[in-house]
Amino acid sequence: MEKKQGLLLVNLGTPSAATPDAIKQYLTEFLLDRHVVDLPKLFWSPILKYLVIPKRVPYIIHHYQKIWINGASPLLHYSQLLCDKLQRHLPNIQCELAMTYGEPDMQSALNKLQSCSKITVLPLFPQYSTTTTLAVLDKLKQIIASDQIIDNICYIRDYADHPSYINALYLQIKQAFEDQGEPEVLVLSYHGIPERYIHKRKEDYIERCEMTTQLLIEKCRANGINRPIQMAYQSKFGKGKWVTPSTSETLQTLAQSGVKNVHVICPGFSVDCIETLYEIDEENRELFFNAGGKTFYYIPALNESDLQMCLIIELINHTQPFTFKNLYSNT
Ligand SMILES: C=CC1=C(C)c2cc3[nH]c(cc4nc(cc5[nH]c(cc1n2)c(C)c5CCC(=O)O)C(CCC(=O)O)=C4C)c(C)c3C=C
Ligand SMILES: [Fe+2]
Ligand SMILES: [Fe+2]
To answer: Pfam families from the entry (predicted)?
Structure first.
């Protein structure tokens, strides 16, 4: 019998339960990764343990509890639904899900794919970043080096400008406009990063977000959507300077200048999670209303939709993947 091909979807990771211990464990693993926070370990470790975690956990736990779906974090819930749906539609490909931090872990997922003739890794981050995509690739490279399976494994760097991705976002926006009515302004909100990473690393995240925005605007204009579209960055964490404009300031400025009605979409989040369901749809909605806004609609992520499934099938069939042999010349 011919060997199957494998598909490994990788997302960020999320707490295994909406409890203080699980959130503490997740945040500690995530925020100790040098891809995410680049401060010297001897300096950062005690600050994280004794100052950041004790403050962050009691603050964020209520947000997680509010958005929890059927006993799972939305990030895991939607990522698993997507993986299961792909598996149903691709009987000749073995589909597995892994997270960079926490469960399901990458080593176990790769073990399950051991008998595959070829494995394609798709980090579920549409825009490449050293803080997310490179964290996945570096972790994989370590596992692969010890398992000696480098030859049959390849990865898709990102899909910020892929026509199927732009089309899927456009259709999601069109549907929202039909269902909810056209807003005065559409805001595209991407996860931010610390500003210093742009100069310090080989980081083209901002360019990739701008590329998605430009192509999406062109697609909307070509199809008769002419409402103003603005892009912004959300989820600032910590004290340093992050890329601007910030989503919350953008929304408040819009409301203060008389805009009553907005839609917000988060193109950089492949599935809904705390940053979209709580930060955007709860916190930023409230900020917009407090500044004078009247209606606010959050356009859901692609999640396990047919649009997302077709996009991924298109990516694995028609994108030239990279091999791990020359990882560092591509990243
Ligand atoms: C320095 C800290 C952080 C950087 C850099 C960062 C980059 C980054 N993150 C995502 C996607 C997600 N982040 C999520 C949650 C999250 N992110 C940070 C911090 C940084 N992110 C924290 C501390 C958290 C946890 C929640 C909180 O305490 O606010 C999530 C959702 C996880 C979930 O459980 O739902 C996603 C997805 C991207 C795309 C990115 C850089 C491009
Ligand atoms: Fe984040
Ligand atoms: Fe947040």
So the answer is: Ferrochelatase
The total number of structural domains in the chain stands at 2
Helix (H, G, I), strand (E, B) or coil at 236: coil
Compute the distance between CA of residue 5 and CA of residue 316 in angstroms, rounded to an integer.
11
Q: Is 218 helix (H, G, I), strand (E, B) or coil?
A: helix
pLDDT tens for 133-172 read 999 999 999 988 776 666 789 999 999 999 999 999 999 9
Residue type, 19: T
Return the best residue to mutate from 274, 278, 282, 302 for the ligand 1 pocket (most ligand atoms within 8 A of CB): 274
Ligand nearest to the backbone CA of 274: 1
CA atoms within 13 A on the CB side of 277: 19
| 275 marked among binding-site residues | yes
17 Cα–ligand 3 center, Å: 17
Domain enclosing residue 324, as ranges:
5-159+306-330
* Ligand 1 atom, smallest distance to 56 CA: 28
Q: Are residues 11 and 134 in the same domain?
A: yes
Centre of ligand 3 to C-alpha 8, Å, is: 26
Query: ipTM score of the complex?
Result: 0.98
Q: Where are the beta strands (DSSP E) in 266-329?
A: 295-299, 322-323
pTM of the model: 0.97
